[in-house]
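Mods, move this if it's the wrong board.
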Amino acid sequence: MSGRVRTASNLELLGGQLCLDFANTVSTRIEELSRDYLTAYGDLVAWGQHAGILTEDEAHTLLREAAGCPQGRAAAFEGAILLRETIYRVFSAISGRREPAETDLVALNAWLHKTLSRMEVVPSGNGYHWSWVAEADDLDRILYPVVRSAADLLTSGELEKVRQCARRGCDWLFVDSSKNHSRRWCSMKQCGSRIKARRYYRRRKRKS
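Not the wrong board. Structure tokens:
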């Protein structure tokens, strides 16, 4: 993102699935290079609005509710980070053709049980659609669509297309929707061009 500082409210959404974009709210899991874009509950809400989970009014409502409940706000934010890392580990393992840890699947299923209890079918025009039902003190309701996305991806044909960026310093996850399924980077503009530029420099240096 040339010329702009990455924040939760403008972070690139390159995963192809909501749950992967949520996992990608950390620059990398390499500790010395890592930057976390979610450092407070407000960042979580900003990302949710940016990702299309929340409308502007819903974001304002959540922030107002959270301001009146510091303990609940802290618990919701802590839960969000734990969920994010669970999702990252599950899909990182899958991208590497490994089985996810059983503990991570147990944790994800615990979230799924809660999420499914907050869903109902409501009329929509000539048909019906899923809708979310949440109590006013459910400060983690922003995470329900993320959990649903993770469950949908795990049970879909898209699962075999989950990849992890090949550039060191960026381990973002994405669904490879390219025709020949050979995409190696989260973004050609971001990471692909950096790798190609580095290779070009090395070739020039060897020739000089």
